Amino acid sequence: MKNLSVVSEFILLGIPHTEGLETMLLVLFLSFYIFTLMGNLLILLAIVSSTRLHTPMYFFLCKLSIFDIFFPSVSSPKMLYYLSGNSRAISYAGCASQLFFYHFLGCTECFLYTVMAYDRFVAICHPLRYTVIMSHRACVILAMGTSFFGCIQATFLTTLTFQLPYCGPNEVDYYFCDIPVMLKLACADTSALEMVGFISVGLMPLSCFLLVLTSYSRIVFSILQIHSAEGRRHAFSTCSAHLTAILLFYMPVVLIYLRPTPSPWLDATVQILNNLVTPMLNPLIYSLRNKEVKSSLRRVLHQLGFLPEQL
C-alpha cells in the first residue's frame, strides 16, 4: 500500500462526551472483555472436548467463537490502555492495521452467519442429504471461503481509506480507527470514496442478511410441516439461538454504516455493543437452550474444578 501521508501517528480521542468517566468505563469495558474471552474459550473447550459436538453446526460455532475472541481484541486493548491514563497515540501502521482487522473479522463473521444459516437450512429442509451436502470437505471449503472473502473486502476498504493523503489534523474523534472518522481527516475530496465505501460496506451485509432471511423463511415453512411437537420444539430451539445472534450482529451494522447522517456518540455506543457485548452474549445464546453444549460445559467446568462432581 502506497503511503502518501505526512502524518506519522494519530491521536484517539475516545468515545465522544465521556470526559471524566474514564475509570468507570475502564472497569466496565475490562469486565466485558474478560467475560467475552472466558465465555468463548469455554465454548471452544466444550466443543473440542466432546466428540458428540464434532458436527458441521458446532464446527462453524467453533470458528465463530474464535473470531469472537479476536474481534473485540482489535480495538479493546488500546482503548483500555488509554482509559487507564496512558498515551492515546497510535501509529499510522497501527491505525491501518486496526481498520483492516476490524473489517476482516467483521466481514468474515458476516459471511459465517450466512453459512451457518445455510447449514441449518440443509439440516432441517434436507435432513436425509445433510451428511452428504455438509461433508467435512464442504465445511472446510465454506469456512476458508468466509475468511478469504472477508480478507478481500477488508483489503479493499483499507486500501480505499489509506490511499488518501493525511497531511493535516491527526485527532481521530473516536475510540479506534474506522472508515467514517478517518475520511474526515483526509486532505482530499472524499465524497466519491464515501459513496463507494457506503455501497461496499452496506451491500455486503445486506446481501448476506437477505440470504439468511431466505434460508430462515424456508426453515420456518419446513418446521411448520413437522408433525411431532417435540421435533418442532427442537428445531425452533436451535434456530432461534442462531437467529438471535444474527439480529444482534446485523442491527449495529445497519445503524452505524447505513444511516445517512452519522452521530459520533450514537455510533460509538452501538459499535461498543457490537464489539464487546455481542461477542460476550454469543456463548450464552448458543449454550442456554442447547442441552448438548450445556452438558459438555458442565464436564469442562468440573474438570477445571469450578463445579462439584454431582453437577
From TrEMBL:
Its main location: membrane. Gene3D superfamilies: Rhodopsin 7-helix transmembrane proteins (1.20.1070.10). Coiled coil: none annotated. The chain crosses the membrane at residues 24-48, 60-80, 100-118, 139-162, 195-214, 235-258. GO terms for cellular component: plasma membrane. The keyword Cell inner membrane does not apply. It comes from the Eukaryota. It holds the Pfam family 7tm_4. Residues 39-286 form the G-protein coupled receptors family 1 profile domain. GO terms for molecular function: G protein-coupled receptor activity; olfactory receptor activity. Keywords: Cell membrane, G-protein coupled receptor, Membrane, Olfaction, Receptor, Sensory transduction, Transducer, Transmembrane, Transmembrane helix. It is a multi-pass membrane protein. It is found in: Cell membrane. The keyword Cell membrane applies. This is G-protein coupled receptors family 1 profile domain-containing protein. It comes from Mandrillus leucophaeus (Drill).
